[in-house]
Specification:
- By secondary structure, the chain is an alpha/beta fold.
- It has 3 domains: 145 residues, Rossmann fold; 38 residues, no CATH class; 94 residues.
- Helices cover 52% and strands 12% of the residues.
- It is built from 15 helices and 9 strands.
- It has a 5-stranded parallel sheet. The chain has a two-stranded antiparallel ribbon with strand order 3-4.
- Strand 6 and strand 7 form a beta hairpin.
- Helix 11 crosses helix 12.
Length: 306
């Protein structure tokens, strides 16, 4: 397991060593989160790289990644722990068959830790000292306020109480990354427990760096045209603008089609890789896509002359 970075520059280098092209502002808040042992709350549009930060940290620090994918209706049984009821019933039947009728002892036996199913939050808290994992709580905004309140309690003391076993406290707090796509506002009380950072869409220069780092097989011309096309789309009136993840997917798709540059036909045929709503695709197909393509090619020619 690697040591925590000792400076912002080292954090930036570690992130970039995996192909994650981060700005200094993001590297700063990641560094502070690690040094201060505070959860990091990352908010932003889907596909801008929030989840990837947890994966990168687990990779560069040599730690296990434990992911809690949030959804509507998520409860303690799915997030923290539950008992293995079928195994408990078998234990009871075996005890009855053997004539063991001591109810108090049987009650203790069936609530032993071997019947406990540890879900992501408990797994993260129950890790041995020196092996604290990276805990990713992904898309917290999809849960309800009741679970959010429970999570606040867990993150306050890094412990959970199981009535049958007692309190389980983390010997070493995990590195916690919480993400939100902002489909609803997360309560201020939880945000106050965390360091906060808004992960926005990258500018053209940084997005081109990302494409080159993650999709080095793509030609220079194709990478530049894709980035400028996507940047133009984000400035338009779309229901859902493409994120960096969609940019990378589009580059991969175009590479599979042996495209060296963009042309109107290929753009129209592959918009479904980049855009995820039919209304957006319909709005962009045809003359609008060609207009944007002509615009960015003129821009590239002008840059080349300069």
């Amino acid at each position: 397991m690697a040591q925590l970075p000792t400076s912002i520059d080292e954090t930036l280098t570690q992130l970039r060593s995996t192909g994650y092209v981060a700005g200094r502002d993001l590297a700063t808040v990641v560094f502070l989160s690690l040094r201060m042992r505070r959860p990091l709350f990352l908010e932003g549009e889907a596909g801008v790289g929030k989840t990837e930060i947890a994966k990168v940290l687990a990779d560069v620090l040599g730690r296990r990644l434990i992911r809690l994918q949030c959804y509507e209706g998520l409860d303690v049984n799915s997030a923290v722990y539950e008992w293995n009821y079928s195994a408990q019933m078998i234990e009871i039947r075996l005890a009855e068959a053997a004539g063991e009728l001591d109810r108090a002892r049987l009650g203790q036996d069936i609530f032993a830790e071997r019947f406990l199913i540890k879900r992501p939050l408990l797994q993260a808290l129950d890790a041995p000292k020196g092996q604290a994992p990276v805990l990713l709580i992904d898309e917290l905004d999809r849960t309800d306020e009741a679970f959010e309140a429970y999570l606040l309690e867990v993150l306050s003391d890094f412990q959970v109480t199981i009535p049958e076993l007692g309190t389980i406290r983390a010997e070493e707090p995990p590195i916690v990354i919480i993400t939100s796509n902002r489909t609803r506002e997360v309560h201020d009380a939880l945000k106050r427990r965390c360091l906060y950072h808004w992960v926005g869409y990258p500018d053209a220069r940084r997005e081109l760096e990302i494409v080159k780092a993650r999709r080095p097989q793509a030609s220079e011309a194709l990478a530049k045209e894709v980035v400028l096309f996507v940047q133009a789309l984000r400035g338009g009136d779309l229901y859902k603008s493409p994120g960096v993840a969609e940019t990378l997917d589009w580059v991969s798709a175009l590479h599979e089609l042996d495209s060296l540059t963009l042309d109107p036909s290929t753009v129209n045929d592959t918009l479904g890789v980049l855009l995820k709503y039919q209304d957006d695709i319909s709005r962009m197909q045809g003359t609008e896509a060609k207009r944007i393509l002509d615009q960015i090619k003129d821009e590239i020619r002008t840059m080349g002359k300069g």
